[in-house]
Design a protein that fits this description.
Blueprint (H helix, E strand, L loop, with lengths): L1 E2 L6 E2 L2 H26 L3 H7 L12 H20 L3 H4 L1 H23 L3 H25 L1 H27 L2
Helix pairs in contact: 1-3, 1-5, 3-7, 5-6, 6-7
C-alpha cells in the first residue's frame, strides 16, 4: 500500500481493490440468490394466480432489472468500502447490510410465506433503509449515492405494487 496524496489513508493495491469489488458483488448476488430460493418455486402457481393491478409489469422484466440493481448496489458499496474499509465506513456499510437483509427478507415474506401483508411492512422498512444508506453513501461518494437512486426508485414502485397486490387479494 502507498499513501494517497491529500489523504491520510493508505491507498489500497489494485489487487486488494479488485478482490474487494468481487467480494461486494458476491455478497449482493448471494442475497439475490437467497431471495430467489423463496421466489422461484412460487412464481408459476401462487404468484401467477394472484390478482394484480393493470400496471403490473410483465414477469420477465423483474430478472433483468434486479440483476442490474444488484450490480449497481455492489459497486456502490465497493466505492464506499475502498475509502478505508469497514473499519472507517462502519455506519454506511452497516446500513447497506441492513437494507440487503431486508431486501432478502421481503422475498421470503412475500413469496416464501405467501404473505403480501407482512411484506408491506418489510418493504416500508426496506425503503427507509435504502434512503438512509443512499444518504450515508452520498456523503462519502457522490457516485455511490447516485448508483443507489435507481434502486430507491424501483423499490418505491415495488412498494406501490406490493400494497396493491395485498389489497386486491385480501
Amino acid at each position: 500500500m502507498t499513501l494517497d496524496p491529500g489523504n491520510d489513508l493508505p491507498k489500497p493495491s489494485k489487487l486488494r481493490l479488485a478482490v474487494g469489488l468481487v467480494v461486494s458483488i458476491v455478497i449482493c448476488f448471494a442475497a439475490a440468490g437467497l431471495g430467489s430460493l423463496a421466489t422461484t418455486p412460487n412464481l408459476p402457481d401462487w404468484y401467477a394466480d394472484l390478482a394484480k393491478p393493470s400496471w403490473n409489469p410483465p414477469s420477465w422484466i423483474f430478472g433483468p432489472v434486479w440483476t442490474v440493481l444488484y450490480l449497481m448496489m455492489a459497486v456502490a458499496a465497493w466505492l464506499v468500502w475502498r475509502q478505508g474499509g469497514f473499519a472507517r465506513q462502519r455506519l454506511p456499510l452497516s446500513l447497506f447490510v441492513v437494507q440487503l437483509g431486508l431486501n432478502t427478507l421481503w422475498s421470503v415474506l412475500f413469496f416464501g410465506m405467501q404473505n403480501p401483508g407482512a411484506a408491506v411492512i418489510d418493504i416500508l422498512l426496506l425503503w427507509t433503509a435504502i434512503l438512509l444508506t443512499l444518504i450515508a453513501f452520498w456523503q462519502r461518494s457522490r457516485w455511490a449515492g447516485t448508483l443507489l437512486i435507481p434502486y430507491l426508485v424501483w423499490v418505491s414502485f415495488a412498494t406501490a405494487l406490493n400494497v396493491s397486490i395485498w389489497q386486491l387479494n385480501a
